[in-house]
Structure formats: C-alpha cells, structure tokens
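Exercise: predict the fold of this chain.
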Amino acid sequence: MTGHDNIINRYPVIGASAMMIGTAAFAWLFSRNIGCTAFFFIIGPIIHWLMWREDFDGIQSEFRHRQILKTRLPIQPEQFFDRFYATSNLDRDFVIAFLKFYSHFWNADIQLVRPSDNHFAIDGHCSNDVFFANLHEQFHVSFSDEDISQIDGTFDSLIRSVYKMPRSLSN
C-alpha cells in the first residue's frame, strides 16, 4: 500500500459499513428513536448493497477480477502468444516483452493475464501518467493525450497501440 492508501480506500465496503453503523449509533444516541435506528440497521444495508454492487472506480471490478482469476488456467507467455496473437501482425518477442512489462507493472500473475484484462478499471489507483511514463521508459514510445483517449484500457488495446507507435531511439 502506498502512503495515500488506508483501509477505507483499499476496502471501501468495510469503510462504508463502518460509516453506516456509525450513523445508526449517532441517530440512536441523539434521538433515542428506535424507528430511526432501525431504519439505519435494516434499510441501510439494503441501500449499501444497492450502491456497492455497482462498479465505482474499479472497486467491484477488482473483486470480480479476482473471482475470474480463480477460474483461469495458467498459460506460459509463449502459449499466450500462440493462443491470442499468432494470427496477428504482432511480433512474438514484442508480445512476450509487453506481457512481462504489463504483468510486472500491475503486479499480476503473468500466466493469468488475458487480452481482455483492463487493470485501469480493476486497480483504479494508478493514473495514466504513471503507466505511460513507465511504458515510455520501457518501450521508448510517447503517447499524446489524443492517442491515449483512443485506448480502451485493455491489454489488447494497449499492446496494439504500443506496437504501431514509432519508437524513439533516445534513452
């Protein structure tokens, strides 16, 4: 966890639950009204569930992604290329190098990464600037804001965009 992370940022459901319980305790303490308190303890969790089942800043995506990872069979980088990019115009060595960079940057298991993975939506804590600065450092490509807006965030979109970008020989 980085310095700006805390339990509410990393575990928003726990944070929201704590706030809901605190609000119910506050209502009971100051109103001594059982109806008001019951509202927060009964209706509160329903509202909480309705809100947090939606995807806010990758929070639910992270949970769903972990569930999906449990069902994936691990594949080696060479198998990854053969399965997903063999018929593309992408170079095998480039795909494997990008896969290694991507999995290292996102701290993802290299054997479980798939082209549809979108770690920008899953993590939600990383800015585009940090990712694209690392991408520039590793592959010597520079993206304009317009280029970045054309990328949907998936591994597939990223790798195809990086592959077609001209490489600068500096650095």
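Check your answer against the key: The two ends are 30 Å apart (CA to CA).
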